[in-house]
Amino acid sequence: MIIATRQLGTVEVQEDSIVVFKHGVPGFETLTRFVLIDLGEELPLRLLQSTERPEVSFFIGNPFQFYPDYEWEMPDELKAELAITASTDVEVWSIVTLASDLSQSTINLLAPIVLNRVQRKGKQYIIHASSFGHAHPIFQR
């Protein structure tokens, strides 16, 4: 299937690569179908792109790559909602906000994107009582 994107123009994606966010993502609750698009091996980011609205996308990165000490306990309710039965089914991503001065770019460690890649289900989960925040620098000094 061909989808339109703001950053990349039109791209072809496989229908079976669509991840369903049952309740959308915060701020975009009516958009439920997204795909992850690789941006090239040289970039540690991917694009989480809405298949329903080309102008809605998020740069995402692996939070463990940027913050190796990042950890949180995934609640059983989230596992059940996403039908997670094995740790190998799970991918965790974080939204990255790119600044015009790249050294000012941040990553949201407070609300990770959790995906069950096998069942193609996703959710942005807000962690409560965390020492991590929503705007950590991606380039640590």
Q: Tell me the β content.
A: 25-35%
- CATH topology heading: BH3618-like
General form: globular
- The rounded distance between the terminal residues' Cα atoms is 42 Å
Low-confidence stretches: none
Individual helix count: 2
Count of distinct strands: 11
Structural class: mainly beta
The CATH H-level homologous superfamily = BH3618-like
Any overview of this molecule?
It contains 2 helices and 11 strands. With 141 residues, the protein is mainly beta. The protein has one domain: BH3618-like, CATH 2.30.290. The strands form 2 sheets. Strands 3, 4, 5, 6, 7, 8, 9, 10 and 11 form a 9-stranded antiparallel beta sheet that branches. Strand 4 and strand 5 form a beta hairpin. The protein starts with a strand and ends with a strand. The model has no long low-confidence stretch (mean pLDDT 92).
Brief summary of the model shown:
The protein is mainly beta and 141 residues long. It has helices at residues 63-66, 76-81; strands at residues 2-5, 9-12, 19-20, 33-38, 45-50, 57-61, 90-97, 106-107, 113-116, 121-124, 136-137. Strand 1 and strand 2 form a beta hairpin.
Task: List key phrases describing it.
nine-stranded antiparallel beta sheet; globular; two-stranded antiparallel ribbon; 2 helices; mainly beta; about 35% strand; BH3618-like; about 140 residues
List the helices and strands and how they pair.
Blueprint: E1 2-5, E2 9-12, E3 19-20, E4 33-38, E5 45-50, E6 57-61, H1 63-66, H2 76-81, E7 90-97, E8 106-107, E9 113-116, E10 121-124, E11 136-137
Antiparallel strand pairs: 1-2, 3-4, 4-5, 5-6, 6-7, 7-8, 7-9, 8-11, 9-10
